[in-house]
Specification:
Distance between the termini: 90 Å
CATH class of the largest domain: Mainly Beta
CATH superfamily of the largest domain: TolB, C-terminal domain
Strand content: over 45%
Strand order of the largest sheet: 22-23-24-25-9-28-27-26
Low-confidence stretches: 7-19
Order of helices and strands: HHEEEEEEEEEEEEEEEEEEEEEEEEEEEE
Largest sheet: 8 strands, mixed
Structural class: mainly beta
CATH architecture of the largest domain: 6 Propeller
Mean pLDDT: 92
Shape: elongated
Radius of gyration: 27 Å
């Protein structure tokens, strides 16, 4: 008789599953509600959140986290504020851990964090013009003292160069193997670090001799585009809206920021330069440089350089603005582009 009952119970369970009765998910029972009803917020906003119990389950307590870090904890289901200040911009996840009737449930909701202010707009004045190799498909540009180092791209043509920026002469050149497409570069601790585009490989050179001393591979970043550093941290773009932070000793990726204005994300981030505590980021094919807060990714300013391309020799291989170098002179940059025959020393002026 006991066996007979067990068979009946098993049959009922199978029938129940076959009829489409599935176990309830936590999101079937609860949902995170934001009072304002918005999906996007600035870091200066303070949204109010609470939990909706879809099936009238009692709620004893709720703990809220943002990307894994606790931001609020309440008894019951009281509406509570969420502090977004000092958070990185981009798509962030609010997760709620709910205690209800002796059980624990977990649900989440994505929001987008935007910059709190509109970027300032800047223009430029040309101070000086220097010759630049028209054959150089410029990918990276950086000063070390008075010497300008440049990385140039294209398969079978990629190089690392040491140049005299005032004359345009190449003091030393290292050719990459044909299978590599060189990208950005930066100099830290007497070493030159150079990216390649899709080969998932970066190269390390001795600054003095320009001899290759090693290589490194990328982590989760999509590709290799631009590099800069603040003396202790290396920043790397990968052609998306992300700028990755790399350990200057191990070259391991340790996190990233995402570039956003007060309205939207900025993709195709390319050449990078560290300037007075900010990241200056060339936006590919836009003829503009974004001034970025390295802590959260907020675009605080945009330098319009679209007219510079008209001031170089026009030819079939002429390509976009790319190449930002800073020599410590306040509000002054050195910029060029892909297959441009001129390097411009410009002063940045707020519109």
């Amino acid at each position: 008789m006991k066996i007979y009952k067990q068979v009946i119970v098993t049959a009922l369970v199978i029938l129940s599953v076959g009829c489409g009765n599935k176990p309830e998910k936590d999101s079937d029972l609860f949902a995170i509600e934001i009072k304002e009803g918005k999906k996007a917020f600035t870091v200066s906003d303070v949204p109010m959140v609470s939990i909706k119990s879809k099936k009238n389950k009692a709620i004893e307590a709720v703990k809220y986290t943002l990307d894994g870090l606790e931001i609020a904890s309440v008894n019951g289901n009281k509406e509570t504020s969420v502090n977004l200040s000092e958070k990185k911009l981009g798509i962030r996840t609010i997760e709620a851990t709910i205690t209800s009737e002796g059980n624990t449930y977990s649900i989440s909701k994505n929001i987008t964090l935007l910059a709190s202010t509109t970027p300032k707009l800047y223009t430029y004045t040309i101070l000086e013009i220097y010759p630049h190799d028209i054959e150089a498909y410029t990918q990276g540009l950086e000063f070390h003292n008075d010497t300008l180092y440049e990385s140039t791209g294209q398969y079978k043509e990629s190089t690392l160069r040491k140049t005299n920026y005032t004359t345009g002469s190449i003091l030393k050149k290292v050719a990459l193997q044909d299978q590599y497409f060189a990208e950005g570069l930066t100099i830290v601790n007497d070493k030159i670090f150079q990216l390649t585009w899709r080969e998932n490989t970066g190269f390390i050179y001795d600054l003095r001799t320009m001899d290759k001393k090693g290589s490194f591979v990328y982590g989760e970043s999509k590709e290799g585009w631009g590099l800069c550093n603040n003396g202790s941290v290396i920043f790397k773009s990968d052609g998306t809206e992300k700028i990755w932070t790399l350990n200057a000793e191990t070259l391991a990726e340790e996190g990233y920021i995402e570039m956003y204005t007060n309205t939207s994300k900025i993709p195709k981030v390319n050449e990078l330069e560290w300037v007075d505590g900010k990241i200056y980021a060339n936006i590919y094919q836009q003829g503009a440089i974004a001034i970025v807060n390295p802590e959260n990714g907020a675009v605080e300013g945009v330098i319009d350089l679209t007219s510079l391309k008209d001031k170089v020799t026009q030819h079939d291989a002429l390509d976009v603005l790319n190449g930002i170098a800073y020599k410590g002179e306040k509000n002054i940059l050195y910029v060029t582009g892909k297959n441009w025959d001129r390097l411009f020393k410009i002063q940045i002026i707020e519109k």
